[in-house]
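Most newcomers find our protein records easier to grasp once they have seen one. Each record describes a single protein and holds just a pair of labelled lines. A learned vocabulary of local backbone shapes supplies the integers on the structure line. Nothing more is needed to start thinking about how sequence determines fold. The record below serves as our worked example for the rest of this section.
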Amino acid sequence: MKLEENMRLNKLYDAYGALLSDAQKEVIEAYLFDDLTGSEIAENKCVSRQAVKDALSKATKKLEEYDKKLNFIAKYEALKNGKGGN
């Protein structure tokens, strides 16, 4: 992923990460915070790279869906920039 995508994923995780399953949290945390590759995560968890890719993809999709419905990221950015949260 690109830096901008990782930054967005990090914001989404900060806002909605508690809503993910434990397995999804582990994969995203290993990817974002431990800076591990899919192969490294797969090796550590004794699963295939495809399983890691799928878990990361599903978790990312879930986080995006939460943000689409709740819109916390945009509201936070608007408040941070002094533009109100509506």
